[in-house]
Each structure stands twice: as structure tokens, then as C-alpha cells.
Design goal:
Blueprint lengths: L1 E6 L3 H12 L1 H8 L3 E7 L13 E2 L2 H5 L4 E6 L7 H10 L3 E4 L2 H17 L4 E2 L11 H7 L5 E7 L2 H13 L3 H10 L8 H4 L2 H15 L1 E2 L6 E2 L7 H9 L2 E12 L2 E12 L11 E8 L3 E8 L3 H17 L10 E4 L9 E2 L1 E6 L3 H8 L13 E5 L3 E2 H9 L5 E7 L1
Parallel strand pairs: 1-2, 1-4, 2-3, 4-5, 5-6, 8-14, 9-11, 11-19
Antiparallel strand pairs: 7-10, 7-12, 10-11, 12-13, 15-18, 16-17, 16-19
Helix pairs in contact: 1-12, 2-12, 4-5, 5-10, 7-8
The structure holds NADPH dihydro-nicotinamide-adenine-dinucleotide phosphate and the ligand N[C@@H](CC=O)C(=O)O.
């Protein structure tokens, strides 16, 4: 019997207990041993819950119990999750986590501690919820030089954008629904301002680079500025708007950004809706591959954590290799990033626009509107900003994913 503990009995933690119980027999077969949850650490008690007798409030009970070989950290946040994870690994207990904030901040160090203590630090659920992406990058794509990773990495914002586009729902209402469904972070600013997707693309790029990407260096924009008029223009252009995270290897380092993008309906990512996420990975010899599934939610995310638990149970006292070491991977200057832009400007700026951007083809939604839009040629971010300075009045840009 392999004994495990769950730290944090919220959306994901309670899902971990449910998946372990619901698929108990097949998990025992696949792990080579039955897996039992011995303790659940939380701040609260859960009277009436089937696991209420397992609840403890002192981490020492778990850390000091030699029977516990696997700890699922589903509390979230940096502290005390960082200290608890570190201490579990130092005690030789493997840790499986869904906590991307912690992985993005301390992944390399926690992996080293796992190696030093002959156990494992696994984090499949930290990116893309239930989508297998960490293990595929580490294992199945290990023969590849990965040149680009991009995709939709946040379920909450994709849910909000889908509801706004398809049902004309207001931002706040759609966010409220995503929170009620258990998709959003405790502080949903992390979702809507793009910070969550930023940490996830930092984790993926760190795995690709083998060194840590400092996520503070990633250009990050959220979706709070996207309004119904943007969707009306997108429809007119046979396009949609998605929050994309993009990471590309260049000679100057990894060019990484998180921002809303306008993308044509025929783009595979345009059809990724609601809480679904998709990650496209391009390898130098393989070409393009894509991973798709539920990016958030109780059971899909818990399923990924439990898969890590099974992998730990199969490798007790052995560390499974993961090439992500301490030291920093270079992030390229964002200003040199190149692409086309969709731009909304006030009607009064027409002459300026034609002078600065030359041959623009205006997109007009409604002649009564005091604005029009156009699409630029491919140019660098810095170049666009210089042009923008020469245009008086309202200017709003959305990048285009070609
Ligand atoms: N929800 C999702 O779909 C996904 C979440 N994740 C990540 O998984 C992690 C957990 O998310 P989620 O389950 O949604 O969050 P929840 O807020 O639902 O659950 C966290 C649980 O941990 C408990 N907790 C917090 N601090 C402590 C502490 N010091 N000691 C003991 N228990 C504590 C909380 O108790 P209390 O409520 O009393 O504070 C709560 O029960 C986060 O890192 C999140 O980013 C990853 C993928 C998807
Ligand atoms: N809040 C996150 C949860 C999963 O990582 C999201 O919406 O994607």
C-alpha cells in the first residue's frame, strides 16, 4: 500500500481524493500498489465529507509520518506551499502539484531537491489543467529541438472570451460563472490580467530551455481591455480574439509574450472554446503537434495530479529525469518582436493614419461610429509604437496571429 497526503482540500485537492477513489482499482493495477489517502491538510474541517476523519491542521503530522511517501500540493500560492513542498522533498517524500505559481518561481530548486533526496517533484497539472503537456515535452518530444510553443493556456479567460463572443455576455457575468465553476484563481486578477498564462508559458519555456525563465521578464497583457466592438470587428474580418501565450526560440533568446490576439477562424486555435486550452509545439524535425483538452476544473486537473501520483508510486526511491536546472534562460527583447497589428482609431485621425501607415484599407463597422480600423503590414513592436505616437486621439491595437 502506498500512502499519500493531500495539502489543500479545495477544488483540485477534493478532486484528487475523488479520482483516487473513483478509479481505485485500475489505479492500483497501474501503480503496482493500491494508493490510499491517509491525511488531508486544510485550514477548515469538512463535517459530513467522506474524508472528514482524515483532515489534519498541522503539517508536522504528515512530514513526520514515515508511511507517507507522496504528497499532493493543491493549496496554491507561494507560501506556505513552498516551505511545505521543500520539507516534504527533504524528507524523501515525492510531491505532485497543480501550483504553477510555485513551479514558475521555484521549479528548478524543487527538482534539484527531489534529485538529492531520491524522490520526485511532478507538476503535470500546473499547465493546461487536464492536458498532458509536461510529460510529453519531457519524454515523447525529447528528441526534438523545440523552436516554438504557443497556445491558449488559461481556461478562465478563454471561457470569458467565448461567452462574450458567442452569447454577448458581459465580462463580469462571464467571470462570475468561471469562478462558480471552479476555474478561476483565488484572486482572478491572475487570470484576467494574463499572469497565470505568463507563469505557464514560463514553465513550458523553462522545460524547453532546461533553465529557468524569469516570468517577470515576459511581456504580459490580459483581456480586460477587450470589448464587444472588438468582437464585432473580429467577426467582420472572419476572425476571433483569444488570449495567447507565445514562446519562440530566437538568436537573441526566447521571445515570449502573453496577449490577446486576433486570429482567423481557420486557425486551429480559433475553435478552442469555453474552458478548453490548446498547446501547439513545433519541433525542428517533427514539425507541428497540438495538445487539446480542459484547461481547468476540478476533475480534469485532479486527473493530471493523480497521474503524477501513479508515476511516483511506480518510481519510489528513484528520481525520474527532468532537465530543468537552476540558472537563467535568456528572454529576448520584446520590442523587436514582429507581427501585424489590428488597429482601431478615431475617424478624425484618417489623414495621420494614411501618412504614417501608408496604404491602409479601412474596416468600417458602422458609418455612425466615430472610428474605423485597419490592419498593418508586419512590423516590430517598437516600430508600431513610434507610428502610434504620430496619431492623435484614440488608438487601440490587437496583435494578429498569422
Ligand atoms: N481550479 C482549477 O481549475 C485549477 C487550479 N490549479 C491550481 O491548483 C491550486 C489549487 O487551486 P484550487 O483547488 O482551485 O484552489 P482552492 O482555493 O479551491 O483550494 C485551495 C485549498 O487549500 C486550502 N489552504 C490554503 N492555504 C492553506 C494552508 N496554509 N494550510 C492548509 N490548507 C490551506 C484552502 O483552504 P481555505 O479555502 O480555507 O483557504 C483551500 O481549501 C492553485 O495553485 C491553482 O492555481 C491548477 C489547475 C487548474
Ligand atoms: N485559473 C486557471 C486554472 C488552471 O490552471 C485557469 O483558468 O486556467
Amino acid at each position: 500500500m502506498v500512502k499519500a497526503a493531500i495539502l489543500g482540500y479545495g477544488t483540485v485537492g477534493s478532486g484528487v481524493a475523488e479520482v483516487l477513489s473513483c478509479n481505485q482499482e485500475l489505479i492500483a493495477k497501474r501503480a503496482g500498489n493500491p494508493i490510499e489517502v491517509k491525511y488531508i491538510l486544510d485550514l477548515r474541517d469538512f463535517p459530513g465529507d467522506p474524508n472528514e476523519t482524515k483532515v489534519v491542521h498541522d503539517i508536522e503530522v504528515i512530514l513526520q509520518d514515515p508511511e507517507i511517501s507522496i504528497v499532493c500540493e493543491t493549496m496554491g500560492g507561494n507560501e506556505p506551499a513552498y516551505t511545505f513542498s521543500k520539507r516534504a522533498l527533504e524528507a524523501g517524500k515525492s510531491v505532485c502539484t497543480s501550483n504553477k505559481e510555485l513551479v514558475a518561481n521555484h521549479g528548478a530548486e524543487l527538482l534539484r531537491l527531489a534529485r538529492e533526496n531520491r524522490c520526485n517533484y511532478f507538476f503535470e497539472a500546473s499547465v493546461g489543467g487536464g492536458i498532458p503537456i509536461i510529460r510529453p515535452i519531457n519524454n515523447c518530444l525529447t528528441a526534438e529541438r523545440i523552436v516554438e510553443v504557443s497556445g491558449i493556456l488559461n481556461g478562465t479567460t478563454n471561457y470569458i472570451l467565448t461567452k462574450m463572443e458567442q452569447e454577448g455576455m458581459l465580462f463580469e457575468e462571464a467571470l462570475g460563472q468561471a469562478q462558480a465553476l471552479g476555474y478561476a484563481e483565488r484572486n482572478p486578477e491572475a487570470d484576467v490580467e494574463g499572469y497565470d498564462a505568463c507563469r505557464k508559458i514560463a514553465i513550458l519555456t523553462s522545460l524547453v530551455a532546461g533553465k529557468t525563465v524569469d516570468f517577470h521578464k515576459i511581456h504580459t497583457e490580459g483581456i480586460t481591455g477587450i470589448d464587444p466592438t472588438d468582437f464585432a470587428y473580429a467577426k467582420k474580418l472572419d476572425a476571433t480574439i483569444k488570449l495567447l501565450a507565445v514562446s519562440r526560440e530566437t538568436e537573441d533568446g526566447y521571445q515570449i509574450s502573453v496577449a490577446p490576439y486576433l486570429l482567423k477562424k481557420e486557425n486551429a486555435l480559433a475553435g478552442v472554446n469555453d474552458v478548453f486550452n490548446a498547446v501547439a509545439v513545433c519541433g525542428n524535425t517533427l514539425g507541428d503537434t497540438m495538445f487539446y483538452g480542459r484547461g481547468a476544473g476540478k476533475l480534469p486537473t485532479a486527473s493530471a495530479v493523480v497521474a503524477d501520483v501513479v508515476e511516483c508510486a511506480r518510481h519510489l526511491q528513484k528520481t525520474v529525469g527532468c532537465l530543468w536546472e537552476e540558472g537563467e534562460a535568456k528572454v529576448a527583447d520584446f520590442d523587436s518582436q514582429e507581427g501585424r497589428f489590428f488597429v482601431r482609431v478615431s475617424k478624425k485621425a484618417r489623414a495621420d493614419v494614411e501618412k504614417v501607415f501608408e496604404a491602409v484599407v479601412p474596416v468600417v463597422l458602422d458609418s455612425a461610429l466615430e472610428e474605423f480600423a485597419f490592419v498593418t503590414e508586419s512590423m516590430q513592436e517598437a516600430e508600431f509604437e513610434k507610428c502610434r505616437e504620430q496619431i492623435v486621439g484614440f488608438v487601440k491595437k490587437i496583435r494578429i496571429k498569422d
